[in-house]
Amino acid sequence: MNKVLKFEHKQSAHCENGVVSNLMRFYDIEISEPMVFGIGSGLFFSHMPFLKVNGIPVTSFRPLPGIIFKRTSKRLGLKFEKHKYSNPDKAMLALDKNLDAGIPTGMLVGVYHLTYFPDPYRFHFNAHNLVVFGKTDDTYHISDPIMEEPKTLTYNELKRVRFAKGTFAPKGHMYWAKDVPKSVDLKPAIIKGIKHTCKDMLTIPIPMFGVKGIRFLSKKLRNYPKKLGARKAASYTGQIVRAQEEIGTGGAGFRYMYGAFLQEAAEIMNNPKLKKLSYEISEVGDLWREFAIITGRIVKNRNKADESYDHAADLLLKIADKEEDFFKKLQKAIK
Amino acid sequence: MKSKDVPQDDANMMQGKFREPVYSLDKDGNYTTVKSVGWNPKNEVMQEAWDVANEKIEDVKQKVIAGKLSPIAYYLEKNLMDVSLLAKYMGLWRWTVKKHLKPKNFKKLSDEVLEKYAEVFDITKEVLIDKNWSNGVVE
Q: In terms of CATH, what superfamily is B47-133?
């Protein structure tokens, strides 16, 4: 089978936003990456000391994989067909059928075996999203939102990443647009998205999430050297910085992206308050970058625990205050 | 962050395969993306994580050379896996894979099982059972 769809690929900072944005463009609905991120309430914070990966407590700057996608499609009234497969060859056959019918198809893959990824980025992370938009002989045409240009994978390469094993194993999961409305009403979706994010950041009654979660992490971080010793404290700290920076978006990057969303929303809603707030969140992003610089230094000098921990913990408190203030204002701005 | 301040610290982390779009404010106060080749604090943390991983790989390698662990232990580490993930790829129980990490059990493995391990590690069976381990020569 040879078929390549006319699919416009645009790079994004975060794969889930990018896939939604690129898929919708195919159906003549233009939604930018920040718009998907804002409507899908992609900004979040959690610190869960009891949930450990490789023995290190998890700090996360995003909701669970798939959530942005789910919320955005619900709030915009987009219908997707979804399927998982137990047989890899059947999963590939189903994809071929879709392509033959002219349907660009999104899917979940593991990044470890993605041949076009740079080596330092290849680890066993299974919730990466991409779109397949064509096939020439044995080669599939891939729109990977992280990449600047479309890529290709062979049949076996694609099959392998679709059936990566481990946490969030994709099991051949694929999805495609079923009912696409002629146009979408962004306004109510924007309001829902903003309200949800404010709620997540301000009012979850458990101290591990949102602004409270940032304060909680500050307290923990301050005690790391005393409680864990220099080496272990540094590796605990390393996880925070990596969650924030390695996946490219996390802490600061997500704040900037949220700013871009608010600026676009200000225009659509005709609400200048949102534009003003879009600048404020950029400043909060700058503070997160400062935090990454300090904690990065801690990780680098991993064998000695010094006053950097106090600096980092203080900075987190400052960030928490700023974000609390910001999200309260945001809540009011859309009332 | 201002667009002009988007860092361009190249530590070859992306190996020229892509640049990362960063949202930032241009001189007119409009959000835009600027493509970045990297940022030092991030590069350093990534490098740090890889240094730790490589240290572990080297450590296991020495144990394999010394005959304390089987080559599977080395390739497991090299592929950044743990026993549980490898067991899933192999379709085996965890304790079975653990058993195979011991040299005396490794020697008894069937060709079929060795082939499967080799496939998971993206190497040939011959490389997996390579006798040159004792000379310390590994690819």
A: lambda repressor-like DNA-binding domains (1.10.260.40)
